[in-house]
## 1
Amino acid sequence: MLTFESDYVEGAHPKILEELVETNMVQVSGYGSDPFTESAKKKIIQACGRENAQVYLMAGGTQTNALIIDTMLEPYEGVVTAETGHIAVHEAGAVEFTGHKVLTIPHHNGKMDPAELRAYLETFWKDGNHEHMVFPGMVYITHPTEFGTLYTRNELQQIGDICKEYEIPLFLDGARLGYGLMSNDTDVDLPFIAQTVDVFYIGGTKIGALIGEAVVFTHSNMPKHFITRVKQHGAMLAKGRLIGIQFDALFTDDLYFKISRHAIEMAEILKQTLKDKGYTFFMDSPTNQQFIVLENSQMEELKKHVGFSFWETVDEDHTAVRFATSWATTEENLRKLAELL
Amino acid sequence: MLTFESDYVEGAHPKILEELVETNMVQVSGYGSDPFTESAKKKIIQACGRENAQVYLMAGGTQTNALIIDTMLEPYEGVVTAETGHIAVHEAGAVEFTGHKVLTIPHHNGKMDPAELRAYLETFWKDGNHEHMVFPGMVYITHPTEFGTLYTRNELQQIGDICKEYEIPLFLDGARLGYGLMSNDTDVDLPFIAQTVDVFYIGGTKIGALIGEAVVFTHSNMPKHFITRVKQHGAMLAKGRLIGIQFDALFTDDLYFKISRHAIEMAEILKQTLKDKGYTFFMDSPTNQQFIVLENSQMEELKKHVGFSFWETVDEDHTAVRFATSWATTEENLRKLAELL
Amino acid sequence: MLTFESDYVEGAHPKILEELVETNMVQVSGYGSDPFTESAKKKIIQACGRENAQVYLMAGGTQTNALIIDTMLEPYEGVVTAETGHIAVHEAGAVEFTGHKVLTIPHHNGKMDPAELRAYLETFWKDGNHEHMVFPGMVYITHPTEFGTLYTRNELQQIGDICKEYEIPLFLDGARLGYGLMSNDTDVDLPFIAQTVDVFYIGGTKIGALIGEAVVFTHSNMPKHFITRVKQHGAMLAKGRLIGIQFDALFTDDLYFKISRHAIEMAEILKQTLKDKGYTFFMDSPTNQQFIVLENSQMEELKKHVGFSFWETVDEDHTAVRFATSWATTEENLRKLAELL
Amino acid sequence: MLTFESDYVEGAHPKILEELVETNMVQVSGYGSDPFTESAKKKIIQACGRENAQVYLMAGGTQTNALIIDTMLEPYEGVVTAETGHIAVHEAGAVEFTGHKVLTIPHHNGKMDPAELRAYLETFWKDGNHEHMVFPGMVYITHPTEFGTLYTRNELQQIGDICKEYEIPLFLDGARLGYGLMSNDTDVDLPFIAQTVDVFYIGGTKIGALIGEAVVFTHSNMPKHFITRVKQHGAMLAKGRLIGIQFDALFTDDLYFKISRHAIEMAEILKQTLKDKGYTFFMDSPTNQQFIVLENSQMEELKKHVGFSFWETVDEDHTAVRFATSWATTEENLRKLAELL
């Protein structure tokens, strides 16, 4: 059955599989000390335009979030996020599992407001009892957000400046980063992110890889004995090559950007189709995830013919649902969908 | 350069890659709810001969150990292991990171002695102050052990009986299980393990897979809301298919057992070669890891021509080193090694 | 200098000191296994009117909250509280330190709304992705709340009923319980609490003791091996007698209730004085904490003559402050305060 | 019944109770910011002869151990102790509960051997795989040990030097410190300890206080935002005065040393009595705890007349037991005991 359920319903981009097959019998050392990983790291650093950046390849998003947050916070600190942040809602308390509180501020279509962030930090430090409270020790943002929305260059700069002023790191969760960078509606590029945030990751799992997120510490700020912390979190792969080879392929000849761009083009077609058919958008998303509101019986009917995701209950009779495109979406499938809508 | 450094220096068995390529564009749901994972689970359950077993596919060994131990212990309990157990030494404190103590008893070539285990448990329960102590809540064994040694059927039975008597689960870490099952010197098979222990895993990473360990709960004893705990540990993969497809291939036409057997055959040749050349064995191993003692200057010389692993310092002038065969080892490479030794 | 800064500025009620002195040389066993603790437990159980209740004496509030929550939750569960709950704001992340998330819903003068609680639980269980989220595993309320407000009998009953329906325990933090029970504006008594909630504690530290909170598990529901968990949390006192003797004194001849009532009477005088003097109340509190809004320069002036607590910034020019009475407040000091206001 | 079960069977030294009664109605701020605590800290710093020492008053031993270890270790580090160390055996895993491993080396009558400590650290750093292991980040010793034994000045100096060489802090658990300092068989005094270790505590609970351990950071090395960590551990008392007043009394006119000395004198009488009566000593202890081996039926008989502690099973027919003297032991009771033995 046709599905637009998510951007991880297929395996890997063919170029990645090709590389896996080709390198398969090359004997290399384990735990990420192989030449494929080395090559991938160099290419990523180059794409970021930051010579003193450090890269570490991880397996999945929740794991990466918990590890980055736990290793970059002091034990008396928590992480500030918009209340809709993935870490606050959909990671089963993985951050709290490491002993840290997730501190929330309001969201605006998935984004935090720089002024509200500043106010939060100011209030904390002015509070005479703040030593009895969890210190805000890091700011976490998602880009694209959980709603597919994007920060502007100006907003990122403001949030980055606030973090510098309060001397806390800014962490950008880029599980779908490529789709954000290739959006028609963005003035943000990879080097800008690399110079504005302290740590971020380039999502692979949702953009063509079988598995893998590339963490970038932007200014030689990888936590001390990071490898031991990775191991302690159970996040180290014996065959580090598996992720190294994939990111090496993704960052060769701009593959990562090209396939992200493809997903955006497919999303634009999907968006236009939904508009033409008169659907109500739950919100306006400039990336590969599109959200519409369906009347419940209509939703049940549609479900029989095409896959999509439940997003949230709007009211007793209506539900918001998500359709996602990806590097693998074809125009043909979009045409089939148009016929069903 | 020729290397026998470990059993994870190559990628995946070709049959696995083939399956990954073939299924690549099939659209499936995420998080392990795909049909490949379903099929793999069924085949594993069948191979175990336990209808009410439950299987869960994980990415790596340390992650699996920490997750199983954390989810099967009560918060006031720790896990009992031989002092050489992987969890006690080489997992960077991943178990303690989850809040549980690793309780150690002596080892005998990597194995625990059933009588010493019983004595440990007896002493704990007889101690009038035991409520101020960590309760032994699980027994952890590795098979093959870190030294490549194997428990006999009788020993496993004894340990299993003790655990039943004390009403605590027995957990077998089978990161290299196939190599143990296919050894010339074992009377233990997979169904026997499945009926004797409460939980174990079938290692994939070191036996032909790119990644993956198949956890088997042998009697419908998967912890409650296990999926949420997996997520909380950062151990859930969005593309669960990656592991599902691999184990499906490994458990089709006995591939797992055949390639394990191959490694054993290669190890027997290696062992004979080492014997013939007059090397001193650090200990006698019936599986794919062989340990010898080298004079340090000899070790430095050999290192220039072939890869192997440092094991431990024997004395000022001698070092124990490890050579490992795997599913990928060729007779040709063993011949080349023989020439170098 | 005169102070109304808090309800813990003096030592202990004289009757308690007397008992400590009198029993001082009696030799007893440690860790709470002494006859004083035994006697205190019996008296508390009797006052609660619940034969199958179990009592455990702890040292302080944050410690008690973290322990109760950690021991009564499953590892995949968090605790639901009004956003102003002490555990959510002023305990330095002690709950998250144990690995559990604090889940917040809106507050209304410090109280949660039963309907909003129900809606929260309903939404969680209806969410198709709830296995990726933290399960609401307990409800935490404070009575009196951080704002000195009180739940009505009806509200407590509703919250209790919702918890029963969802099969999660209801935990009432009674750090200032006596002041709530003796308020003029309450229809709640101790037996009602004991029959409505699953676990609660009777605060001693803020009501006449040097130290101590008496936890009541209302229906033989003390977590398994609770003593070991107490020790593991570092919360066990070698000289358990210290708290036992105090609670024994507090629950002899209704001392706890009498001194709580005294604080309420003093608070009523304070409230009337503040009203007469034309002060603006930040909110209406029926217990021993009274909150007023001061113009900042007025606050600075007053600070020179009398102690009170900063509560929160109201706007650029105004601050909310707290005055607290206690078992130790005298009418004479209230008269002195009246002269200063 | 006569008891020598432990050194915490009575309440507090009368001088302490006197001070508690006298200061009872003085109004002071909470959380350790009171003048009594201030005064106690100054007196302790003076007794230590270290101007830049910092003191923090805690409630109990396990709590103090877990807090010091957790706050002074990096997350990838564990604490090295003799295998009989209190933290390794009798604290219900309180250290592991904070996520850190307890690393053990052999004991010799409760003490670690400096040479064995050095060998342990050397082996770790030489191990090529040490990044997969828990880093030894602190050394923990007890003085007196769990067996009542004492380190010599020379041994402490050696251990201190090793720690300096490896740049890890040395932590001395002095739950019974006074009894060690006042032993007939020691060349160690308080200033020597304060200049040799990085952090230690002066036990109050077992030496005359109702509750309380005074932690000394010997060179301005209190961890950052320590108060917040104390709160996070649930270890902060609202009425900090309770411990401040007690240590102020203990460090006025050498009370702490005088009452410790009394216990030693009583222990010497006890020891002589046991010798005269022909008892077999389990080991030779120079402090207030004396250990003898009893034939089991003899033990059961004696138990009917006098209290003592089970120590450990020696063999099927014999048990080691402990008799403890304290600040409160009287010569009269020792005479009574002599008659029973």
Note: Chain B has a mean pLDDT of 97.
## 2
Amino acid sequence: MIGKDRIAAANEAAEADLRAEYDALGAVLDRRGIDIAAVKEKVAGYGIAVPSWGVGTGGTRFARFPGAGEPSTIFDKLDDCGVIHELTGATPRVSLHVPWDDANPADLVAKGEELGLGFDAINSNTFQDQAEQAASYKFGSLSHTREEVRSQAVEHNLYCIELGRKIGSRALTIWVGDGSNFPGQVNFTRQFERYLDSARQIYAGLPEDWRLFTEHKIFEPAFYSTVVQDWGTNYLIATELGDRASCLVDLGHHAPTVNIEMIVARLIQFGKLGGFHFNDSKYGDDDLDTGSIDPYRLFLVFNELVEAADVPGFDPAHMLDQSHNVTDPIESLMNSAMEVQRAYAQALIVDRGALGGFQEENDALMASETLKRAFRTDVTPILQMARLEKGCAIDPVATYRASDYRGKVADERPVSTSGGGGIV
Amino acid sequence: MIGKDRIAAANEAAEADLRAEYDALGAVLDRRGIDIAAVKEKVAGYGIAVPSWGVGTGGTRFARFPGAGEPSTIFDKLDDCGVIHELTGATPRVSLHVPWDDANPADLVAKGEELGLGFDAINSNTFQDQAEQAASYKFGSLSHTREEVRSQAVEHNLYCIELGRKIGSRALTIWVGDGSNFPGQVNFTRQFERYLDSARQIYAGLPEDWRLFTEHKIFEPAFYSTVVQDWGTNYLIATELGDRASCLVDLGHHAPTVNIEMIVARLIQFGKLGGFHFNDSKYGDDDLDTGSIDPYRLFLVFNELVEAADVPGFDPAHMLDQSHNVTDPIESLMNSAMEVQRAYAQALIVDRGALGGFQEENDALMASETLKRAFRTDVTPILQMARLEKGCAIDPVATYRASDYRGKVADERPVSTSGGGGIV
Amino acid sequence: MIGKDRIAAANEAAEADLRAEYDALGAVLDRRGIDIAAVKEKVAGYGIAVPSWGVGTGGTRFARFPGAGEPSTIFDKLDDCGVIHELTGATPRVSLHVPWDDANPADLVAKGEELGLGFDAINSNTFQDQAEQAASYKFGSLSHTREEVRSQAVEHNLYCIELGRKIGSRALTIWVGDGSNFPGQVNFTRQFERYLDSARQIYAGLPEDWRLFTEHKIFEPAFYSTVVQDWGTNYLIATELGDRASCLVDLGHHAPTVNIEMIVARLIQFGKLGGFHFNDSKYGDDDLDTGSIDPYRLFLVFNELVEAADVPGFDPAHMLDQSHNVTDPIESLMNSAMEVQRAYAQALIVDRGALGGFQEENDALMASETLKRAFRTDVTPILQMARLEKGCAIDPVATYRASDYRGKVADERPVSTSGGGGIV
Amino acid sequence: MIGKDRIAAANEAAEADLRAEYDALGAVLDRRGIDIAAVKEKVAGYGIAVPSWGVGTGGTRFARFPGAGEPSTIFDKLDDCGVIHELTGATPRVSLHVPWDDANPADLVAKGEELGLGFDAINSNTFQDQAEQAASYKFGSLSHTREEVRSQAVEHNLYCIELGRKIGSRALTIWVGDGSNFPGQVNFTRQFERYLDSARQIYAGLPEDWRLFTEHKIFEPAFYSTVVQDWGTNYLIATELGDRASCLVDLGHHAPTVNIEMIVARLIQFGKLGGFHFNDSKYGDDDLDTGSIDPYRLFLVFNELVEAADVPGFDPAHMLDQSHNVTDPIESLMNSAMEVQRAYAQALIVDRGALGGFQEENDALMASETLKRAFRTDVTPILQMARLEKGCAIDPVATYRASDYRGKVADERPVSTSGGGGIV
């Protein structure tokens, strides 16, 4: 871990400038009728879950280029997640992935408590074959034509719930790779019937206070069709299953040019928005750092979330889901958590009264300007001040680099080998 | 009209070759266990509706380049539709568009009877302003923020139903241009609530034996968001309205790369496939001739339709919807109707028993080959023989050209002027 | 026109706040080693051309919904352009479109001088048929199969040059709609040979101190192929023609997901970037207001331009090209000009030394952050101060609305009628 | 291997039907003025290279699900390639990938001679790190910022040439993963300068009778920018390097909706089409079986190739490049080779005289129909007869399955383990 002293020392050097910039921003917002302290308080209360798999270096089917000091166990991963939260104060929970992170629940809980981390939604994995596995998922899992494969996949999900209960999770996230690579390979209707049948069995095993999130994706690893290809199918699933089932939106899982913020609005309207996997993308499911490609799109998603904040029972889960192929994953996750906070803060300062008026009057230009004005506002001082007041770092990346955490764990952890990706 | 004698004379020259090719194909299919006569009978019984607006030359926002002898009234248009059906025997119904085609219902019925044409779904138009119109649709119609605009649009749809009843239509098709061009211009949720409210009023006025088709489209004429942007939203509408409401799928209204045949399967599975607007596209809503760009995709759609043929009550409406910018619209519509028949015939000869087996066994390669084998089969002789036996043309385009129908109507109809499109 | 007094009065009310915000921003930038005054000076010196056709309400193939007080002549249009420049000080030139704007050159020059406006690149139009025209462009213009059509199109371009010389233009912009709607309709190679042959004839008539810009576009109005479909073909044209020929990049003319800023970099590197048509888009050539959909993409383009500022002879033309379907065109053009200035200012404050270092070290995260930091900076006070010091409006839209310019010209100008678009 | 007797026995059962269908097709083509024997001869003379890596089961970043009897060495792979050619007679050459296939050249040549296989273009690999490698390609190879990495990558390519010379290859294919994942990570211009500099060093080492193929790709494994992102950049490379450098077109490496056949035509026109990597795709670089998703697009590419057949010196390389994730790779490669032959045969029977006339007259409908007519023709009997006469299998997949080749090698080859893909 980084340590309070180190953080405090780094903050001390930056605090005066921060206070000046915070005050200047406060004055600007005050002229717009916005109380900067209230915004800061909401930002400070915001938390997003980190995916355990995100702290390892990601790769593509072509190659994986590991960095130094990669985590080799879930406990290493939790250490890294602890650093992220220690420095940013923005990531109080970790989302586990089973079987990658399978371990003694008591040990997981103890480690989480040690680091001040809780456990978010648990993720099942039926898109890979494990060494000890009886049946293969090569041709599908929950929607496979053969009953024994589907049963195995259902059982795995029930196992995940069981593990999750023991560590304090409250939700299960299902994403499957089921689909097809050739027209004709699957019967779309029968495949989806089988998926629904399996999902119903999992839902039947869901504790009363849990939620079930299903995730859609247009393509990859299947390249002609995907059984849960879009929000339309995802909505059907959530409706068929019941009240505790809802849809997870991953920002990179849509067809090119699709208006994602509108999908978010529709799911909210019909009570089926379960949560998010945040990341950014330019081409496909690129899993790039959140806000790195199109930050305005991220803001527009948060604009919908803030707009819906008063909807009774509205409480979507927020998680990051990224692949860090060329950066230190800890740095990327810290920055991404802060980008999400930034979008949230910007959405909070939208003048919603004015916006509603412009919408009513069809004043498209001023409605657009109202959003742009909030988006243009550099809310960095708000985020920094929220961190400072929590004892976290004003500049998490700089503080992290100065600590040489990575160098230290590199000395302790086994060297991770280069991977060839899936093509060979 | 072309005339039975002219058609018969043209057919006579081609008949011997056709019979030879039909017999050769019959032998090929017989070896696959398929009775060519049974396929021919189904093809002969198939009909698709022609859009009245399709017989005029289309255009873009940049320009419209009219051809000679353009129809100037709905009665001219019906004449052209009559020619299409006379030559192909494949287009027994015309789909009207109001107010473009508004006329005395008795006159429409009389003209239809004269030409052997019935009337398919009627289309309302609330995406343009008409000269006499009280309120403008500039900022929307069924979902407009102002009640009087929505009422006007609802009234127009009820008027369309009324007209449709008098001419024998049994369905109303609603497509609106409502959406937005700027983030923030509309509140997605409130806009959709207003849309649903208006649609419910129309549905309330729907005769018991009518169906209501709603059409989704990802973009154009709105370029940031569209109120019915995809099949997910379209499904919500159909579900909210009731049993007689269902979804119309236009093949060009989807995001790039989207798997359309899978959407078709989903809507069938959930009882909400209302019908089609057939056309083809490469980039956006290009409205190109059906089957001209990706004929295999068209076949895959028909593969789903034939697969679902035994679903009780399954009876989607089939319509063409194209923009003929560089061809004689009569020729394009004839060819397109035949392309749809071709895809239907190809889908009929898929070996569904074998396909189901390969799907069950996850034999992806042979499943694909089973579809490809049917698609590769040149079913032209079946289509031609079906036409010959109906007294229609073996080669409709050649017979049409030989008749100089276009030259004759060009002498009688007023000259249509070049249009500048919407940009000036 | 709006009038200096009205502007000054409006500015007076806002000046104190502006000075406070400008000073606060100056302090922030100073801590980064940036002199705000130097940035302001560059922004003040920046100008972008307004398209004459942009001041009329645009439309789609479905409809055009005109606003009140539409300009009916080029002189009306110049008045509107004058207002834009009077209020923003950012649009010193107008780009004419012939034949839409054809008029007595002396009158144009006189009007321009009266308004303080010059004339930018002149645009030819061979994508529409004009009433008096001998041959039709239905099947192409510069690349048409028939020699007389190509000659007519070449002549028209030479006429545009002639007109342009008389009014002080220094460049010709060619965009054609030539392409095809069906596979097979054109022979790609022969069509492009004909295009090049025609373009060479135009280039031969280009004055020594002129430049020729050719514009590529992936689709629309042709929907299967376009003769200048992408920057690759555009580059071939510029190379074949000669040194004074270069490529125009319209931000909405690319395939989905294409990295436009990289195309800009390539064209700069190979000496063939002629200029820009700025706008924004989500789906196709949506012609939305610049920066309204993806402002970070606009910034990334300007990042390339500032990066290349020292390349000898580097002087791309900057023009707006938008379709204003739901806003007052004057307002949209003012805002868009300011969005371009904003992106320019943000690109100016990128720490290029640091960026180069991070690139050299493959520190992807910090390189990204270096750009994001500049982008996040709200440079509005710089833009406002530049305007204030020029005697232009701190808030151009508010000042424009307060002036009721639109209401006044609506009383004087003929009412523009609703258009049906190209589809009927 | 399968064995002549087994093939002959299988053919015997199918020969009578084939002869009947061949004769019937011959009669059809004869009526169109086409000599079926001449088409058959050209098809029989056509060969396409198989990629050595294609005979192993492919995977994605999520997982790889190996099949039974996977090849474990290049000699196993050559055995599998031998089977493909034995059965289809369509794949006389293998394209090696180094270092995956690195081996004693004399052994490779001997094995090739034993199997009747030659060696096509050799492929270098600088997108993965090898165990013994000094410098990492994590941040690029030919375009890396550090000279020692670029040198290592250049050296590797020179090594590939050296190996290729010894086994009879005549071309080097370069595809790199270089690019970036974040805006700002690389300087586009300097990165491309470095790429060109490295490529020039490789070109300098190219034997006089060799060709250099460079391959472009829009994204993956880099997700924000790719150094050779499209054919425009690829063309610049080929032009900068010299006459023996040309562009390789992989059908799956383009932005969505891009007109690939037009790119092919442009590269032919400017003398820079080097060859193809054939496959099919729906979303991205899906590497699906050739012709499985959009067979008409494949035909349109071959239409350009046949159109250009008389261009002096025109001799593009034809290779397959696919990832077989859910099929037996031998079956997929056989089918894909036959799909390419099919597209070639269909393109050969296009009535080019008629097509040229329709193009000249702008008869778009009949031009389209001329292509469609050839495409609709089921040329299967031509392909089958060409195989029968060569002693290859009428039905390669059925004959292969009956031989149980896969079962036999599964007994001999080591079991391949499931792969986790690049993500963990």
Note: The longest strand of chain D covers residues 245-250.
